[in-house]
Amino acid sequence: MNFASLKKISFSLLFLIISIISFGQNIVLSPDTHVSVITCGTGNESYSLFGHTAIRVQDSVNAIDVVYNYGAFDFNTPNFVMKFTKGDLQYFAVVHSFTDFINQYQYEKRSVYEQELNIPATLKQKLFDNLNNSLASGESYYTYKFIDKNCTSMVVDIINKTLNANTIVKKEGTAVTYRTILYPYFDGHFYEKLGTSIIFGKKVDQLGTKIFLPYELQKSLNKVSFENHPLVKENKTLLEFKNETPFSWWNNVYTYIVFLLLIILINKKSVALFYLSIMGILGLFFTFFGFYSQHLELGYNYNILLFNPTLLGLLYLYGTKNKKGIYNLALFTIILLVVYLFFVINKAYFAIVLPLIITNSILLVRIAIQNKKRIPIII
Question: Which of 158, 206, 259, 344 has its CA 20 to 30 A from that of 32?
Fold first, then answer.
């Protein structure tokens, strides 16, 4: 595609968006209007592991067929990385033509499902007006939160606001934690599962009472009622692709186990110190972002008992040949590992961190034994 064609398409899309936002309040939807919630399937890229949610408004009389998407952000935002890390990056809603929207998911080979809402024409108009008001006024901007504010929760909020009732609520899966709910989405993505297991703190171990994932919303919509009738009038499959679990020679549990076994079997002080230092550096990282970040999911992270920042003290103690200090620090971190074990033994991610617990324990016990002061035996 050449630059001129791309520019023409971009201008046309921009004109469509401006037209809808500017004149949306003046458009009276026809009685044949269809309003629906769109659920997009998961993909194999990290940004698409959990799927996506949007709202479609279709009115053939007024030649409207658009999708409102609350999952946009601007890479050109000043200090983008720091804002994202801190948790104050602004996400916002955009509107696409349905054709462009569905073509993108066709290209990515991701399933798309549609649930038409069974609401009267007055509420369809109100929802359409609320969506356009949100875009025009800036209300569509929000501070992204993994559980509390995302593309799915924003759709729930604006529909509930339109219905003037807390109609859409979670109907199943409220007896398990957010972490347990997330785990199946990482099939075939082992290190993403490991990473989220260790970086997330206490909040994701709370019971998952909020709708925060697209498939959760899809299931809940089929179970809720509005004005004594099901809220969903019809379920449609717009695109269907088999979501195959990707194969990776490195992104799997086997490389994880082999790496940790090598750390143990090599049995060299330099290797043990390198490994434990990395654990300590990661602990500093978790501690810093637990205080710095506004992502509540990163706070109160008891994984710092495993990724213990005090492990970095071993480098100094070995450098000064302080055998007593090395022994005491090793013993201290072993005790904290035991405390950590009691914290995580009943958590969804216990199995995935158990090899790390075992590796840390073996290395620290070795260090403690090697540096324990020997008591002379007098015969």
Answer: 158
93, 66 Cβ separation under 8 angstroms: no
DSSP-assigned beta bridge partners for residue 112: 40, 239
Q: Is the pLDDT score of 185 beyond 70?
A: yes
How many Cα atoms within 13 Å fall on the side-chain side of residue 376? 2
Helix axes 350-371, 190-199, angle to 10 degrees: 70
Quick check: 20 pLDDT over 60? no
Compute the distance between CA of residue 313 and CA of residue 327 in angstroms, rounded to an integer: 12
94/25: higher pLDDT: 94
Per-residue pLDDT tens digits for 311-334: 999 999 999 999 999 999 999 999
Ordered by start, the domain boundaries in the chain are: 16-174+209-239, 253-371
Nearest alpha carbon to residue 330 among 284, 365, 373, 283: 365
Per-residue model confidence (pLDDT) at position 139: 83
Q: Which CATH number fits domain 16-174+209-239: 1.10.10, 1.10.1660, 3.90.1720, 2.40.128?
A: 3.90.1720
- Block residue for tokens 């809220």: 231
- Cα(219)–Cα(131) distance, rounded to whole angstroms? 23
* Matching residue, tokens 């990473």: 195
Q: How many residues does the chain have?
A: 379
